[in-house]
Design goal:
This protein has 247 residues and is mainly α. It is built from nine helices and no strands. Helices cover 76% and strands 0% of the residues.
């Protein structure tokens, strides 16, 4: 029998949807016959996912009830967009018909690649990384290339959005000194990474053993994953249709 995992781009799920997905899975697993739950790694994955899900829910609750937290999330989104804008601008110059611009783009891209996934790391780590990146971009080695490509405004945008975020986050850390503060970006990344490992494990065990636990679990996983994949497809179709109508 051929086993497959239903494709789902978990990285594009909204924060609420990501939490609901994991909760749905955990609820479904609770329906599995207890006599089948005799695989230690499987049980450990479920236990750890349960802990991550509970932590994630606490973080979501904090975001929902705190205006200050919402401002921080929005500020982080702004600097993530600034990072994306810088990356896209570099790609445009990579196909320039001016050799000097192509060379400058390649050099800057090499530097930027050393900050891979900068927008997905924890809040404070991202703050430090952007500070370091901006400092390098304004240094003697790269400043002339930034000037050549007229990308100074992208560097300024990086600095300004990061400064805004640090001000908000620093203020919150002071006013919330006795309150548990959740880094949603870090928690989400860890939860989804663990979830991906769990899905891979279930799929591999389906192919490697005859234990009924794994086909049953894979079926539950796929049912939920297809539902959320269909939801994403509908969202994308609706967005595309709105963009066409606005043209």
């Amino acid at each position: 029998m051929e086993f497959n995992l239903e494709p789902l781009r978990t990285t594009v799920l909204a924060n609420m949807e990501a939490g609901q997905l994991i909760k749905r899975h955990l609820s479904d697993f609770a329906t599995i016959d207890a006599s089948l739950l005799n695989n230690a790694p499987f049980n450990n994955y479920v236990k750890n996912l349960t802990s991550k899900s509970e932590l994630y829910e606490k973080g979501l609750a904090q975001v929902r009830k705190s205006d200050e937290t919402e401002k921080i999330v929005l500020a982080d989104d702004s600097r993530d967009k600034a990072i994306d804008a810088f990356a896209k601008a570099l790609k445009l110059y990579a196909v320039s018909d001016v050799d000097a611009e192509v060379d400058a783009s390649k050099s800057l891209s090499t530097l930027f690649a050393s900050y891979k996934n900068i927008a997905t790391i924890s809040y404070e780590a991202e703050s430090l990384a952007i500070d370091k990146l901006a400092s390098e971009l304004k240094g003697a080695s790269y400043a002339p290339k930034i000037a050549l490509l007229q990308m100074d405004r992208y560097v300024t945008r990086l600095e300004n959005t990061n400064a805004t975020f640090k001000t908000l986050f620093g203020s919150r850390m002071v006013t919330s000194a006795v309150t548990e503060v959740y880094d949603m970006k870090k928690i989400r990344k860890e939860m989804l990474a663990q979830y991906a490992d769990f899905c891979d494990y279930v799929l591999a065990m389906c192919k490697a053993t005859n234990a009924p636990l794994f086909p049953a679990s894979l079926n539950l996983l796929n049912t939920a994953r297809k539902y959320y994949a269909d939801q994403l497809a509908r969202h994308t179709a609706t967005k595309t249709e709105k963009e066409k109508n606005s043209d």
